[in-house]
């Protein structure tokens, strides 16, 4: 059991950091969200409040519980105050090794003694990230999934130095926020990113070849395999620029089966990254809703 008096600091107020901070604050933990970008912090706070308020409307939270969750969350522009005496740090800044190492090098000295240090990386080496931290045995990958408030899985990723105590504590933290954890040895793409990249890439090859329409490819995976979302829909949500970066990394480290489909390269070059740009495989309106019948057709390629 995790003591509810323990403090969590989440570094990085992007999409994942927002979701992770919400998960801990709504589960009863004092949670600090840190980002040097004030606008990102404001947006994250608004989004977290919207998720909490949505829970009240759906009857999943009482108004009192929602108010308490909001009160447990604070935002900070600097690591000095944000990370001070925290018992768990979850780093979710950009997928850049030097940036992640710099964040941990600055934050770790002000954490509580023996604090657990987690990185939300989906592709970089936990071992290399941990190299910037005294006692690298307490560093572990804690890979959450988007949207965090709906997705129950967390991949716990072992670096070369990660010890059994860090694993046990990480599992306990996951249980405390209602997540199921799996244990993964450090490897390119872990389990989910590797499988998702392969599936999404193959779906794009099928679309490029004219095997089926985008809508029908996605319907096949939803209805035939009971996936909640088709691979092209998922790529639009993740961002094809992100998917392309992962595929290039996997292609370089694991070989030809991960060679990016040319259609993905073409779409990224055109700025059609997905939902965040309003256009990917599908088009999206100003509210982020998919425009019916807007799926990319093979005849348009």
Automatic annotation (TrEMBL):
The keyword Oxidoreductase applies. NAD(+) binds at residues 12-17, 35, 95, 100, 122, 146, 276. It is an enzyme of class 1 (oxidoreductase). It holds the Pfam family 3HCDH. Residues 191-284 form the 3-hydroxyacyl-CoA dehydrogenase C-terminal domain. The keyword NAD applies. SUPFAM superfamilies: 6-phosphogluconate dehydrogenase C-terminal domain-like (SSF48179), NAD(P)-binding Rossmann-fold domains (SSF51735). GO terms for molecular function: 3-hydroxybutyryl-CoA dehydrogenase activity; NAD+ binding. It comes from Pseudoduganella umbonata. The record marks 143 as: Important for catalytic activity. Gene3D superfamilies: N-(1-d-carboxylethyl)-l-norvaline Dehydrogenase, domain 2 (1.10.1040.10), NAD(P)-binding Rossmann-like Domain (3.40.50.720). One of its GO terms (biological process) is fatty acid beta-oxidation. Coiled coil: none annotated. Its EC number is 1.1.1.157. InterPro entries: 3-OHacyl-CoA_DH (IPR022694), 3-OHacyl-CoA_DH_NAD-bd (IPR006176), 3HC_DH_C (IPR006108), 6-PGluconate_DH-like_C_sf (IPR008927), 6PGD_dom2 (IPR013328), NAD(P)-bd_dom_sf (IPR036291). Keywords: NAD, Oxidoreductase. Residues 8-186 form the 3-hydroxyacyl-CoA dehydrogenase NAD binding domain. This is 3-hydroxyacyl-CoA dehydrogenase.
């Amino acid at each position: 059991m995790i003591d509810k008096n323990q403090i969590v600091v989440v570094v990085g107020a992007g999409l994942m950091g927002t979701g992770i901070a919400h998960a801990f604050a709504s589960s009863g933990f004092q949670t600090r969200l840190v980002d040097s970008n004030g606008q990102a912090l404001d947006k994250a706070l608004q989004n977290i409040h919207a998720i909490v308020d949505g829970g009240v409307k759906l009857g999943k939270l009482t108004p009192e519980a929602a108010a308490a969750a909001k009160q447990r969350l604070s935002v900070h522009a600097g690591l000095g105050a944000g990370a001070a005496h925290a018992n768990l740090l979850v780093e979710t800044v950009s997928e850049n090794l030097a940036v992640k190492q710099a964040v941990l090098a600055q934050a770790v000295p002000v954490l509580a003694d023996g604090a657990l240090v987690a990185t939300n990386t989906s592709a970089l080496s936990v071992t290399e990230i941990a190299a910037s931290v005294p006692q690298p045995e307490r560093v572990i990958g804690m890979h959450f999934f988007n949207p965090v408030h709906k997705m129950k899985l967390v991949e716990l990723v072992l670096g070369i130095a990660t010890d059994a105590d860090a694993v046990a504590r990480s599992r306990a933290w996951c249980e405390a926020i209602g997540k199921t954890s799996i244990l993964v040895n450090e490897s390119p793409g872990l389990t989910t990113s590797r499988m998702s990249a392969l599936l999404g890439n193959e779906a794009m090859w099928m679309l490029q070849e004219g095997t089926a329409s985008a809508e029908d490819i996605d319907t096949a995976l939803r209805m035939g395999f009971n996936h909640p979302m088709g691979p092209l829909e998922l790529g639009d949500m993740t961002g094809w620029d992100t998917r392309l970066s992962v595929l290039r990394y996997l292609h370089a480290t694991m070989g030809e089966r991960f060679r990016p489909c040319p259609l993905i390269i073409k779409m990224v070059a055109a700025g059609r990254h997905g939902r965040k740009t309003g256009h990917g495989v599908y088009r999206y309106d100003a509210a982020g809703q998919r425009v019916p019948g807007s799926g990319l057709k093979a005849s348009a390629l």
